[in-house]
Amino acid sequence: MNNFQQYDEAMAKYHSCLKMKTVPIFSWAFHHEFLNELKNSFLDLDKLKSIAVQHQWDHDKWDLKTRLKEEVIIVTDIKLNIVFASHDMVKMSGYRPAEVLGKSPKMFQGVETSVITSNEIRKAIQLQEPFEKTVLNYKKNGVIYSCLIKGFPVFNLKGQLSHYIAFEKSA
Prior knowledge:
Number of strands: 5
Helix content: 25-40%
Mean pLDDT: 89
Order of helices and strands: HHHEEHHHEEE
Low-confidence stretches: none
Structural class: alpha+beta
Strand order of the largest sheet: 2-1-5-4-3
Distance between the termini: 63 Å
């Protein structure tokens, strides 16, 4: 092999004999995006399980793994400060999870958000009852979106209120 042409020909011959063909370079971006989503899903699941174990909740009743594929998950403490937000939040609202930690879910509300719906959610939270409501929320860039929220109080193994968890998706 005195020159690159012979090398290229030899490599082409070798690859043509393989059963597995090479992947076009433009698909790498898709694969990378898929791997990032998969990695973030595992990170989210681990973080949720860690919170559940630390605060002694029965996390098995919500099938968190499946929900993470389909919904954004937000967990607040009993003072309604966000302590966890799944990575898919950025797709729905434009906010990265780190941007919402320590803040209230009210940060997503604005002028068009129904006061009546907000009051109904507030009442369910005060009564420590589950709720399902569709609200108009605001993305980071100010665009309004309809959000279906399924919220639940979370009790520890002693029956004490520990957190609130919400499963959300664009409606």
